[in-house]
């Protein structure tokens, strides 16, 4: 009696596996350099979601500062970090500009910089959009920081917010929202 029951259970499991295989979408295919592709698009299996924005110059019109955008890559993202888009989405000053030729990146955190990471950057002043691409994508498990250089801080004190979107390295990348970064700019107080 028991052996008959086990045989029935085995056939039921085998039939279920066949049915799932017929109903399942196309399998995920690993592409070159550890990327994950599905239907000719590259995407993250686990998108980066740990985001931190820092600046050490936080008063209006400060010159010489950098804005640090730090992203921790998950251990198994399915693809390296191919690009970032950073767009200003709020704040009183929509005219402060950046020197995109001085954009840089490195592994690690600000003030504890690791090796440099090559980047190509552009800034569209009208749309307030930074596009940063990584010719050699940061690997899974690495922490990468991008340093953006404004000509000067905004002219108005406010809380400025930036949307950060990540793109996996590979053909036809599918964008993933990483988060919203906040930066407070203060009016100096005279006593």
Pick out its properties.
single chain; 191 residues; five-stranded antiparallel β-sheet
Structure, described:
By secondary structure, the protein is mainly β. 12% of the residues lie in helices and 41% in strands. It contains one helix and 13 strands. A five-stranded antiparallel β-sheet has the order 4-5-11-7-8, with no helix packed on it. Strand 7 and strand 8 (112-117) form a beta hairpin. The termini are far apart.
Number of helices: 1
Largest sheet: 5 strands, antiparallel
Helix/strand structural class? mainly beta
SSE arrangement, N to C? HEEEEEEEEEEEEE
The helix fraction, in percent, is 10-25%
Q: What is the residue-mean pLDDT, rounded to a whole number? A: 82
How do the strands of the widest beta sheet line up side by side?
4-5-11-7-8
Give the strand content.
35-45%
Low-confidence stretches are 5-34
- Rg on CA atoms, Å: 23 Å
Strands, total number: 13
| Broad shape | elongated
